[in-house]
Amino acid sequence: xxxxxxxxxxIFASTNWVESGDPKIIWIMLGPGSVRExxxxxxxxxxxxxxxxxxxxxxxxxxxVTGFFKExxxxxxxxxxxxxxxxxxxxxxxxxxxxxxxxxxxxxxEPYKNPN
Length: 116
Ligand SMILES: [Zn+2]
What we know:
This protein is an alpha+beta fold. The chain has a 3-stranded mixed beta sheet. The chain is globular and about 40 Å long. The longest helix has 23 residues, at 40-62. The chain starts with a strand and ends in a 7-residue tail after the last helix. Helix 2 packs across helix 3 and helix 3 runs antiparallel to helix 4 (99-109). The chain has 4 helices and 3 strands; from the N terminus they run E-E-E-H-H-H-H. Bound molecules: zinc ion. Zinc ion is lined by residues 49, 53, 81, 84. Zinc ion binds at residues 49, 53, 81, 84.
């Protein structure tokens, strides 16, 4: 995992490969919003979210298809995000996370509901 800190504002968490070559090294990038500005539950579910992206990347690579999320067709990216956000909301509920943080995740999930 790496912490991304930019000069100008928020950098969101992502799963990124920042090094080329074989084997590829894929990093979970965490932004200050995940590490510092919200609760420990939020940090845990962000790591959970990005870890699921990693598992899906690995599965695709093993199946010989395009691995990296950003190389997928937009529809498939949205499906993956939605699938992960739903699991994330489930986890947040089990951890009894503050209602406001759950609502924030629901808002972030909204654009992925429509596949087109
Ligand atoms: Zn995601």
